[in-house]
Predict the 3D structure of the following.
Amino acid sequence: MSVKIILRKEEKADGTFPLAIRITKNRKSSYVYLDHSIKPDQWDKQAQKVKRTHPSHVRLNNYLLKKLSEASNKTLEAETEKDHVSSQAVRQKIKPKTGDTFFAQATDYLTDLKASGKYTNLSSG
């Protein structure tokens, strides 16, 4: 299984391209998008890092290195737990989707209101 940081080819409206972590196993890839986008001329493909032409290249490279090590750790963790792990399963371990929906958050909110004894807010919510 390989884990790399890449610059995706989907251009955003501002002319930048998103950075992502690519997890590949058995020629099947999954992507975890990072929260940063840069211009293609600011990306060093061989070294997998941001070039010095970017205004905050040091900070961004530290962030990318941290995310890459987290993804590598999660990959190793998943592979040691099970013999067969897909790239999609590792992606879910890195960036889980639980709690993203409105109803899951609303249920948590109402449970917290009930636990804290705020019955007036609970009956109006």
Remarks:
- The helical segments are 57-81, 87-94, 102-115, 119-124.
- DSSP finds four helices and five strands in the chain.
- The beta strands are 2-7, 17-25, 28-38, 43-44, 49-50.
